[in-house]
Each structure stands twice: as C-alpha cells, then as structure tokens.
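call fold(seq) -> tokens
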Amino acid sequence: MSTGTPTLAERDDDVDFTPTGPPMTLAEFHALPDEPDIDRMLIRGRLWEKPMTKRTRKHARLESRIAQILGNWADTCPEPRPEVYSGEIGCDLPSLESGVGIDVAVVSPELEATLTDDDKYIVGAPTLIVEILSPSDRIEEINLKLDDYLAAGVPLVWIVDPFRKTIVVHRPDADPEIFSGKDELTGDPHLPGFTTSVSQLFGR
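ret:
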C-alpha cells in the first residue's frame, strides 16, 4: 500500500462508473429527469453515471482562484472579450454527441456570439477547459473527457492536480507538458498575453 499522495488511479477504486443503457442523443440526454444524487455525462452517445459527490473546500477554493485569475486576464483583453465560466458549467459538443460538466472554461468571443439566451450550456468547443481532479474521479473518466475535448477542437486543456500541485497541459497533436512550482504557464496564441506561475494559481 502506498504511503504517499494517492494517484488518480489509486483513488478511484470504490467509485462505480460505467456506461448505462443504449446510445442516446444530446436531446435525449438533456431530457433525462434531474437526479441530485447522480452525476452524468454523455460521451459519444453513451451515458455514463456515478454517485454525485460534494466538492471539497480545497477543490472549490482552487476552482474559484483559477477562474478569478483567468477572469482578470479576460478583463484586460480588447473588446469583444472572451468569457470565463466556472462551477461545473455544462458544455455540449454536438459534433461528437457529447455533453459534460466543466470546472472552468474560457469561451472565445466568436463562440460566445453564437450562443443565445435560450442556450443553457456552452455549445461548441471552448478555447480552454480546466479539469480539477477530485478523489471521486476515475482515470477512465478523465481520459474519456480529455479525448473528446481534443477531438472536438479544444486547443488547450489543463488537468489540475491539487494533490501534487501540478498542471498538465494538453494540446491537439502535441505531447502533454507538466508544470509545477514557479514554472510559467502561458496560453499563447489562444490566450494572448496570459501568463502566470503555477504557484500563483495554487495560491502559494
């Protein structure tokens, strides 16, 4: 038994996470009745479910901090500015028949302009998706979502590990890069002018 900080694979053994039922569309997915005890996502037409867990203080604080730093950057951008969303914002990827919840997302002005007041969720590929790992996450879940994000054309995905205080940056057709400590994290050309240290994002 490991005595160090648990890895994602070691933390997920007691969480049931399996695809259920026949294939469905996004419209059918959104028509499902709300069940507060169930966390759902649709990946390429397959419904995945697991027990709903509450966000920890650490997770919520880190999510708020990342959203704040990205929001401060967005406020410096020329109009029309990108939008920053947080709080498990829904995101539909119609080209893949997928629908997920995202911890933090940056949406380009171009994508934002296509959304209407009737759209409950982001529809299309954000510029940046931030996934913050939690003890209930399974490695299969994270990889399914990551593969979908990149296939849908999301240019930047950050996988944030609050346990090891690292950020792994994924881009389409590029090897992942890991950042920690005082490493500088940038977003060029997709987040022009954005720069911060990893330690600043983690608040230390």
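The longest strand covers residues 83-93.
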